[in-house]
Amino acid sequence: MARTTTLGVVRTALPALGLLLGASVGAAQSAPRATADGVRYDGALAGDVAVFKGIPFAQPPVGPLRWRPPEPIAPGSGSRPALRFSAHCVQTNRLAVWTRSIAAALGTQDKVVDDPFEVSEDCLYLNVWTSAKSRPSAPVMVWIHGGSNLNGSGASSWYDGAELARGGAVVVSINYRLGVFGFLGDSALAAESPHQAAGNYGLLDQLEALRWVQRNIRSFGGDPGRVTVFGESAGSIDLLHLVASPLSKGLFHRAIAESGAPIGAMPSRAATHRAALFLAKQLGADTAVDRLAALRAAPAAQVLEAQNKLVGTGVLPGPSVDGWVLPDVTARIFERGEHQRVPVLIGTNALEMSTLRTYLPNFQRTVAAYNGWTRAAFGANADRIQALYPAAADSVVDRAALGLVTDFLFTCPTRIATRAMTRAGQNVYLYQFTRVVPGGQSLGAWHAAEISYVFGVVPAWLPQDRTDGALGEAIRGYWLRFAATGDPNGGSAPKWPAYGAGGEHYLELGDAVVARTNLAQDRCDAIEPAIRALYQPSPNR
């Protein structure tokens, strides 16, 4: 487990790192300093790591800037502290409830300590962890958090970058606009855009943060020519949208996608406009002479309340085809090989859906209901699906559904993306995370379970043993080597073959680390036609 401690006085300057240590006379501890966009930021030392919190990367998207692309930070001067995380982007406490449900399944709910947070539309800030040792031009890892594009923050204690920084990376975590604040596709917003585009403001925030990295990361010891975007769940899906976006060219050089591939249907402009009209009606702005002005004047709390009603109808705000950030459905962009051809490390967890039950189909857990649902969902292929995910008794229906939906939403879309990227000539490294923590048999390898191994941050409620410690060291080693070189291999770690190097190779990350082939081959062969029907990819325009 990575812990942060206080280091005593640091006496040496770090010119190679780009950090200047300064302190007032008589101070007990020197503060690391770095310059971004002309402003000197004073951070803090956490052991042997310099930490900078709450650095703005765009203008506050408030008032007339609500539902507009992020405005870049204007060059400044002077100094300011970088000691506190910024507010989270506007959201509910849904993630805290979700975390407690996992701890309850593990029998450790009494050990959960919620991260306190405030919310604000003024939330476009990032955080940096970098070694307080002289390591010039370190690889950079930019974390895009998950949370269904509705929740989350780069300030979460799960994403403390200190351990990865000790391993030699400069780690950046970012915020981006969430929910309808980040993904409202009103046709009137498109009309006022010079690109005739609306709806992908959250993705544009991520791109703006990456531009900040290109301008400023040398001051923090990072190499702007070796930037890796990495993320989990919605963060993984979003970063693969960025891989597909023509706007991302040159902003990053590798990608690590954990538990999420955007292979499926995406909202049309008409669908996003309908959602915007629903929101306007909830806010009483639908009859206003100037609908956008009325929407922009609505208090954030009221917009969030209206969003919750929209989500209650089954509509989840998220990335859409806007003709600018995303010129087409991302799956089709990948199929045509028109995405950014960077090395990719990608994978899923073995039982993602055990902690995502809210997204499971709503049917009674009986054999008859299960068979009826699979017939409706898979048509003529239903018998094959039922044989691959058998449920001969009511008592096993739930487990069968968990496995089937895990593959439908995670494992098999990831295989589609991996095959497309391999065809495009990219080096792709596929994994499946299978580790079940002590006492976690009911959850299996659940959604987000790998995060603690990636960051080396183990909350008190998460039971782990020596196997978990060794697995975490192995995973961080692979991730760090990939960020440094585009290849996760090196040292004494088990070799990780590239996906298309003579077979469909993958690495199992579990009780042991083992190279295997043909992940879920029979299952995905059966499921894939139903996934492809959602977006009908074509090889040519």
Kindly describe this structure:
This protein is an alpha/beta fold and 541 residues long. The protein has a single domain (33-461, 526-532), classed as Alpha/Beta hydrolase fold, catalytic domain (Rossmann fold), CATH 3.40.50.1820. It has helices at 94-106, 162-166, 179-182, 187-192, 201-216, 234-244, 269-282, 291-297, 300-312, 330-336, 367-378, 382-388, 397-423, 451-455, 466-485, 521-532, and strands at residues 33-36, 39-42, 44-46, 49-56, 79-81, 125-131, 138-144, 170-174, 222-232, 254-258, 344-349, 428-433, 505-509, 513-517. It has an eleven-stranded mixed beta sheet, sandwiched between helices. α7 packs across α9 (300-312), α11 (367-378) crosses α12 and α13 (397-423) crosses α16 (521-532). The longest helix is centred in the C-terminal third of the chain and has 27 residues, at 397-423. The radius of gyration is 23 Å and the shape is globular. The model is unreliable at 1-28 and 537-541 (pLDDT under 50).
